[in-house]
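From the shared-data thread, chain only:
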Amino acid sequence: MTENFKQWLLEHPLSTSIIKYLIWIVLIILVITWIRKILKKRLPDNSLRYKSQKGIEIIGYFLAILITITYFTGSIKDFGLAIGLLTAGITITLQELILSVAGSFYIFFVKVYKPGDRIEINGIKGDVIDIDSVYTTMMEIGQWVSSDNYSGRIVKLSNAFVFKGPVYNYSQDFPFVWDEFNIPIRYGSDVEMAKSIVVSIAQECLSEYVQASLSDWKGVVDKYYIEDAQVDPTLVITITDNWIEFNLRYIVDYKKRRHTKHLLNEEIGKRIQETNGKVMLASATFEIVKIPTVKFGEE
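Structure, as tokens:
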């Protein structure tokens, strides 16, 4: 039986090469899987463990490509020719897959985003929880839930999308965002008192973010061609037909935007109530000031 098998291998050199090739590929997969499991158990730090596993995965892909070229071209010197012939036949068919793999290298080397970043891509916003050679996996934010809350859905996006549109990164270089909201103040209120209330509460609640953002913003200004910006809270007043509109603009940690807006609204509302009517919030209700007198003629 053994002799017959050896004879068959000698008579079919192409089949022999394919069998050896498959054995090498399976061996690489087994070794890479074993190393990944060892790293997962031995490395305590999540970030280091993740990066190590991804590095081993890339090495596995490289070895598989190297063995493929060696077996099907006969020499590593024919690398360029082999790649050219191979890509010419499958580029159109596997265009999306090729773009996805290229996108993974682009994300890694250009540092478009990394696990833990909050991004918006292809109209989907969420926190990046994994990046592999084909997909970016995100924990979705928004959709049927308001503001920056998790929806609970895991979203997988092709890495090819980094070449097809803008990628909004909330975390990279400057982990803060500007936010704002309007406060309608009723005509007849003490405007100066209202200004004092809003500004003082903003300074109390936002001082931590202002101080933390100063050094980060300086780094952004030094790194990019961008003008300096105001990171302290600003208040702009607009006169409208119905009320005096206060617009409060401020800087906040991108993960605490919703909570911070809640605190500001709550504190401002309490302080306005404590003014005993000197400052009043306006609403879109209609107020009848005077009912005109209607006289009916005598017959």
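Helices lie at 2-11, 13-42, 46-73, 79-90, 95-110, 191-223, 257-273.
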